[in-house]
Amino acid sequence: MVIIGAGFAGMHAARSLRRANAKVTVIDRGTSHLFQPLLYQCATGLLSEGSISSPIRHLLRRQRNADVYCAEATDIDPAARTVTVTRLDSSVEQVGYDYLVVAVGMRTAYHGNEHLMEHTIGMKTLDDALAIRRKVMGAFEVAETLPDPEQRKPWLTFAIAGGGPTGVELAGQIRELAHNALEREFRSIDPDEARVMLFQGADRLLPSFSPSLSTSALRTLERLGVETHFGVHVTDVGADTVEITEKKSGEVRTFGARTTLWTTGVEAVPFVKALADAIGVKQDHGGTIPVGDDLSVPGHPDIFVVGDISSYKELPGVAEVAMQGGRHAGEVIAGLLAGGSERPAFRYRDFGSAAYISRKNAILETGPLRLSGRVGWLAWGAIHIAFLAGVRNRTGTLVTWAATLLTDTRRERAITYGDPKTARKSF
């Protein structure tokens, strides 16, 4: 049993095989399982990277039939049933499998505008979160040293492309950071003057939620001081500018901004194209792979595709779909290994969607139930704590949230530069 990817889908697939008579190998290019729904809180100094990530080996330490392989999958030969992987030292190896679960996830999509990558940061990985933290915290620090108020403005202006949950959560957190945590810590600037602009191509925020909840979220962001611009696309980004184009009129406007964050969509990682080419399948929207009712690839009953890269009945690319899909694939394989022949169809149970807007204010929608404000915030918190991996992370996150509410401080504000040879180029 080989599982590629240790995200929500991959980890749940592995755990479903804990009692199976099989050798389970989990392949991931990193060493930690990341809780992506709270990535924006790491990016804005509320939580540490350790609070939202757990070592894969630690999570699987009690599963005696599971092993972890730190490497990146690059190619596949379905006829030989082998996966080509590249280790951390750049050496290459072939890993054989009897059953394969592909759960490699997605990456930030630029929709053909790859030139925008140079001056924007996406929001999919821990590296992205730390880069955003470096950019945001560094912007306040640079502004503090500039004597001219006009020079400070671009540094204190933050542009966010995309009005989905990630964009909304980032916008709210940056304003909260400026208004609460940094309020009394600077001498030359007033952090509360930070300008946060949210650009959305649709006519409302959070299109996946009901209109009433979208309106509630908009009102909360406006009270925080977030500027929202609807019906516009970000068409160019420079080192200190962001250009937007009105969808209807074609009017182009340019704003001064030293920080632009990109949250407008996702696409499959390169390995998924290698998989599609190898098995002769045409990729669906966003590069996803169409699967059958049991989540295996038609014509390849030994290959299962789960999580965000799986295209099945227009299910959304959210954590709950990934968890349930990974669990189902693992259970199907466990049943086959036990001598069964049935492959039950995947049935998704929709537990709803939630988004954090500001402190003590979140929205949650599940079926006819719609919550907002403090009640939504409490429900949002309970759900996220329940799904965090590990007792230590759950406890630590609760303590950090409580301390932040009581003191308005954020301790996770260290700036990391990555490669020391190019450190100063980060700004």
Which features would summarize this protein structure in a list?
427 residues; alpha/beta; FAD/NAD(P)-binding domain; eight-stranded mixed β-sheet; 11 helices; 26% strand; NADH dehydrogenase (quinone) (non-electrogenic) activity; NADH:ubiquinone reductase (non-electrogenic); flavoprotein; FAD/NAD-binding_dom; EC 1.6.5.9
Describe, in plain words, how this protein is organized in 3D.
The chain is of the alpha/beta class and 427 residues long. It folds into two domains: 179 residues, FAD/NAD(P)-binding domain (3-Layer(bba) Sandwich); 151 residues, 3-Layer(bba) Sandwich (FAD/NAD(P)-binding domain), CATH 3.50.50. The strands form seven sheets. An eight-stranded mixed β-sheet has the order 7-6-5-2-1-8-20-19. Strands 12-11-10-16 form a four-stranded parallel β-sheet. The model has no long low-confidence stretch (mean pLDDT 93). It catalyses: a quinone + NADH + H(+) = a quinol + NAD(+). Belongs to the NADH dehydrogenase family.
